[in-house]
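Input.
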Amino acid sequence: MGRTAIIIAVSYGILGGLVVLLVAGAVLTSTLGGRRQIDAKKLGEREKTWFATVVVVLVALLFGTIFFTPYGRGSSSSDPNLQVVDVTAQQFAFVMPGAPLKAGKPVEFRLRATDVNHGFAVFSPKHVFLFQVQVMPGRTQLYRYTFHRPGTYSVECFEYCGLDHDAMKATFTVTR
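Output.
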């Protein structure tokens, strides 16, 4: 798991723990606090405060994670180190060039499907999941990734695409 994913997972864990504590505190105070007169004005102010708090937290999470999404960055063919790999997904194969890729240089996968939706999932040589891209007919999905270690990487389809879906696999090689 990458550093960014760990930061996001820990942040969500801390936030989830705080929410659980706040809800538990609210339940305890409301059940153990006894009967008292409800102040509608004070209750309305609390609702506004909670609403504003939720909006601020959601906006902070959006801005904290949106810059790490790998999609929509477009192609910058001006990068001399960029390696472009055209991949066509079809029932039940990934058609991609057999030329090895260089480790440490960015790779731009240009993914197309000829028939149905497919999932382009890439695994490291130790079969650790690296990333997955949805590939849809009529669209070209761009995805950039830099492979840092040489080896034979495997590709599997992560979207059920028909009877031989489980046989839809491919490999490619990354060299120094």
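The helical segments are 3-32, 40-65.
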